[in-house]
Design brief:
The protein is of the alpha/beta class and 343 residues long. It has ten helices and 13 strands. A hairpin with a 2-residue loop joins β10 and β11. The protein binds adenosine-5'-diphosphate, iron/sulfur cluster and magnesium ion (MG).
């Protein structure tokens, strides 16, 4: 079986525009990647690079002002084996309800966004089970649902799970809420978990605990994960594959170890230089020079050229650099590699 045939998710040419007072603005452009079952893709890039928009497109949770451009493709293989073209669904398609929560679950930086404040944690977990009978092996009784929810709360490391089941989200501490959000997302055993910077607001210790927990659960449940972060250190810890985004485009992608060890794109190199270095004694951060422009002011040519120390005048500011395969599955969009066999 080819890698493409085995994919759980195949994204091609995903382009998302927003209607604004100043016209259409392109937030995500021609994004493509494959995700196989049970694998973790790390999506990394500075704030505003299009990580959230591209993954929200996958569950069609974009604001009304957004448009998925024609030609975009997001093919997802359902549990039933059927392939679904997510880009072709109408926003009101009933199949989206099955997809969201049942097949693809999301967690965010802010757990309160995942919960309703007016229902108990347990009630919300049971409702998720009742909403997705196809995902949990059929209709459950209240008692069965409760049992599964309490078990899941215990599994994510919440002490006194039976007591927490009857509590409201605001009654939990920040760290516990984060765990409860993971429990709510995973109660339906989704095939894919999208984790949008779930640890960004946490202190270092809690961040490490939650990352460990997520890795355990990913392996135990055999689900695939898209983990969004702006932190390369998190990628090193959690991702099998990595895609580096800049101004709405993937500029480098490939096996995480390879990309982290031998980064090719000047932007990836800059992100890695911005990591704290323990061997330097004190944490020394070298920020990526310059600011990411607004997508409204997307530069012509290579989007990174105004900030790139290696730019070739007359070339990098004219045409989009070709995507070049520089190693097994390792791709980079930069003219510096074009001679090595670009297309
Ligand atoms: N509701 C919106 N209206 C207009 N533009 C938006 C909206 N949401 C996001 N964008 C644009 O999309 C770009 C990418 O946003 P986002 O995916 O949230 O970035 P990231 O998650 O990488 O920080 C932003 O820079 C912004 O310009
Ligand atoms: S294409 Fe040019 S500007 Fe863009 S990253 Fe490569 S060298 Fe820098
Ligand atoms: Mg985001």
């Amino acid at each position: 079986m080819s890698a493409a045939a085995a994919a759980l998710l195949r994204v091609r040419d995903l382009t998302v525009d927003f209607r604004t007072d100043e016209g259409w603005v392109r937030a995500v452009e021609e994004v493509g990647f494959d995700l196989r079952p049970g694998r973790t893709l790390g999506l990394v890039g500075e704030s505003g690079s299009g990580k959230s928009v591209s993954t929200r497109a996958l569950v069609r949770l974009l604001p009304a002002s957004a448009r998925i451009a024609p030609g975009s493709s997001m093919r997802f293989r359902l549990r039933s084996g059927e392939e679904m073209e997510i880009a072709a669904l109408s926003p009101r398609d009933r199949r989206l309800r099955r997809l969201r929560g049942g097949e693809i679950a999301l967690i965010f930086q802010e757990p309160m966004a995942a919960f309703s404040p007016v229902y108990t944690i347990g009630h919300q977990m049971c409702e998720a089970l009742f909403a997705h009978p196809e995902a949990v092996g059929g209709r459950l009784s209240r008692a069965e649902a409760r049992e599964r929810a309490v078990e899941m709360l215990a599994r994510v490391g919440i002490a006194n799970p039976a007591l927490r089941f009857d509590q409201y989200p605001f009654e939990l501490s920040g760290g516990m809420r984060q765990r409860a959000m993971i429990a709510l997302a995973l109660i339906t055993r989704p095939q894919l978990l999208i984790a949008d910077e779930p640890t960004t607001a946490l202190d270092v210790t809690l961040q490490a605990q939650i990352l460990d927990l997520m890795q355990e659960l990913r392996a135990e449940f055999g689900m695939a994960m898209i983990f969004i972060t702006h932190d390369m250190a998190v990628i090193a810890q959690i991702a099998d594959e990595v895609a580096v985004m800049y101004l709405g485009r993937i500029v480098e992608s490939g096996p995480a170890r390879e990309v982290l060890r031998r980064p090719k794109h000047p932007y990836t190199q800059a992100l890695l230089r911005a990591l704290p270095r323990p061997e330097a004694g004190r944490r020394r951060l070298v920020p990526v020079p310059g600011d990411i422009p607004s997508p409204r002011e997307r530069p012509a040519g290579c989007p990174f050229h105004p900030r790139c120390a290696h730019r070739l005048p007359g070339r990098c500011d004219r045409a989009l650099p070709p995507v070049v395969e520089v190693g097994d599955g390792h791709r980079v969009a930069c003219v510096l590699f074009a001679e090595e066999g670009g297309r």
